[in-house]
Amino acid sequence: MEPAPLAPSPSAAWLDRLLGGAVTEGVVDLHLEPDRAGLWVRRRGAGGWEEERVPATIAGPELVARIKVLAHLDPNERRLPLDGRLRWSGGTQTADFRVATLPALHGEVVALRVLQRSAVPPALSSLGLSSAAEERLRSWLAQGRGLVAIAGPTGAGKTTTAYAALGCVDATQRKIMTVEDPVEFQRDGFVQIAVDAEQGLTFADALRSLLRQDPDLIFVGEVRDAATAAVAVQAALTGHGVVATVHAASTEGAIIRLLDLGVEPFLLADALAGVVAQRLVARLCPVCRVPAPWPRDLGPSPDGVVSGAERSGAMTRGPGCAACAGRGVVGRVGFFEVIAVTRAIREAMVRVDGLEALRGAMAAEVAVERGGGLRAQLLEAACRGGIDVNDACTGMGDADDGG
Ligand SMILES: [Zn+2]
Questions:
Q1: Is the pLDDT of residue 399 over 60?
Q2: Mean pLDDT in residue range 166-173
Q3: Which position has the higher pLDDT, 195 or 93?
Q4: CATH no. of 124-391
Q5: What's the 324 CA to ligand 1 centre distance in angstroms?
Q6: CA of 46 to the centre of ligand 1 (A)
Q7: Which residue in 30, 99, 37, 40 sits closest to 71, CA to CA?
Q8: Is this model's pTM higher than 0.85 or not?
Q9: How far, in Å, is the centroid of ligand 1 from the Cα of 330?
Q10: Domain map of the chain by residue range?
Q11: How far apart are CA 41 and CA 33, in angstroms?
């Protein structure tokens, strides 16, 4: 049998859209799973797993064969598991996928994982930040000293925000270095280091070595251990600008997380310039969304802040329609809370019994932000029917949401 044709066919075009969509929508895993009736595609991104049936017009075996050809695998080997790599490119974007096939009862299962995307990070102004929030981020990076922590759950777009913010800096005038696992965006002019724990290159090691290269701005892909937290804070205190992502649910949770990692409160108070918390939430398809009751555990609906014409009331995902390609959602919308570390917040951080004071000081800063804090913004969007009311406050716990 000949390899699958490389000329555009319905399955080739469909695969191209599937991979391209994964790259632009921040999907991490793509699984193709056959059952008795055909093929399912499952996607894991910010909102967890989503699944849909591959259209009947697409031949499953041809699709799998095409993936194998693109991954330099033998399309005729269907009895053994295979591993390969596939590069997708479209327009200005490229991405590498790891491909693993496994023969199963109803045919081959294919798992694709996005390894690296050279998608151009969006401009800071296109993320959906308020102008005040955007200005804060720009000024922190311009001053080139201090730590900016970006908090959010996995898939919230923290790295995208970091790159968009670093994109405002002239990389020909300032030396910008990143430490990540893996490098998510390839950027000309940046020195980018991929952590490789298996080879013994940890975040903290990479960060220490990188500091000897005299960078102006550093992006730390994730602060998840005490050693990395210590070096990142030290770097911020010694004249470097540091942007770091932290796995925490809120701005306050980010501070608590860094303190939990053993950073001395007085050092963190000195180092921290600002904290960002963010979420990416699927946008409901305005055509097929359906009304939903306001969940009692969200507290009272913020009806008062949403004016009559814009208010549709709480909505949830509809059955899907032509406008949303049957998915019930169209794209995603970002929510941000950006807090400047004020003197009151610093003082609350160094007080031993300061947790309540910290909450109070941060809440006061949120109040001056247009649109309110993250929770208020999400509730308002749910009240307008822009997002699924059931998505409004998932993971809005006070502290780290685990994982
Ligand atoms: Zn729809």
A1: no
A2: 92
A3: 195
A4: 3.40.50.300
A5: 4
A6: 19
A7: 99
A8: no
A9: 8
A10: 10-117, 124-391
A11: 6
